[in-house]
Specification:
alpha+beta, 4-stranded antiparallel β-sheet, 3 helices, 12 strands, elongated, signal peptidase activity, serine-type endopeptidase activity, Pept_S26A_signal_pept_1_Ser-AS, Pept_S26A_signal_pept_1, transmembrane
Length: 180
């Protein structure tokens, strides 16, 4: 009887340790997310399941997940870092006056029959309302520029609202991939 009791206690301890480790990993290191909507097309698709890495600091062009003002989590691409000027002219991104290529948009741009993919704007013309991205904040945009609620509409994103970055799609199984 005592041997069975000890074995049951050992299994219980192992299970509690496993649950504790899973909770720590999920809360502090990695978390799953489901892409909801079409704002990141063609890079990400509605229903894609991804892993969010909660470690590290967002870099330019990273895909991040953040708490949006609507009490919902959004997934967008980092375009402007604190102190950057951001501008779009003739469907070209300019950061601090320098043009930047956006290879992740090329396939989508080739499908557009009329008009630019991204309308012209400066930071001052967005809810950011100033020349540069404020300190401690990010300017983000969806890859589906014609159909994305992003910093052009909701303003810059405070770094404390960022959950983490993501670049691994693990579901659907046929679409497992690393995205840039």
């Amino acid at each position: 009887m005592t041997k069975e009791k000890n074995e049951l206690w050992e299994w219980t301890k192992a299970l509690l340790i496993a649950i504790g480790l899973a909770a720590i990993i999920r809360y502090f290191l990695f978390a799953p997310i489901v892409v909801d909507g079409y704002s990141m097309m063609p890079t990400l698709h509605n229903g894609d399941r991804m892993i969010v890495n909660k470690l590290g600091k967002p870099k330019r062009f990273d895909i991040i997940v953040f708490h949006a003002p609507e009490q919902k989590d959004y997934i967008k691409r980092v375009i402007g870092l604190p102190g950057d000027t951001v501008e779009y002219r003739d469907d070209t991104l300019y950061i601090n006056g320098k043009p930047y290529a956006e290879p992740y948009l090329e396939a989508y741009k080739s499908q557009i029959l009329e008009g630019p993919l991204t309308e012209d704007f400066t930071l001052e013309e967005t809810p950011v309302g100033q020349k540069t991205v404020p300190e401690g904040e990010l300017f983000v945009m969806g890859d589906n520029r014609r159909s994305s609620k992003d910093s052009r509409h909701i303003g810059s994103i405070p770094l404390e609202k960022v959950i983490g970055d993501t670049n691994i799609v693990y579901w659907p199984f046929k679409d497992i991939r690393y995205v840039k």
